[in-house]
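Dig into what follows:

_____
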Amino acid sequence: MKVYVLSLGAGILVGVIYSLLNVRSPAPPLVALVGLLGILIGEQAIPVGKKIMAGSGLSAAWRQAKCAPHMFGMLPGRHAGGETSAVNAAEKVS
């Protein structure tokens, strides 16, 4: 239940920010995509910041917090071992 309340609070905050920026919801596609990118970057700020405060450099902190897989997903050609992509998994199901 706590996650739902926090999600609602975050949504209300974003709605207030949209209102201050005079952007109507649903946002135009480009505005929405930039907002989503901001959300992904913001999610990584705390873990990376903690690693930097612990003495790691920015690039090391980025790798240790595993930011790239979270922000960009599995990139083509970067699959580890025998993992299959979501596309391959979906093909096997159908």
Remarks:
- The longest helix spans residues 29-53.
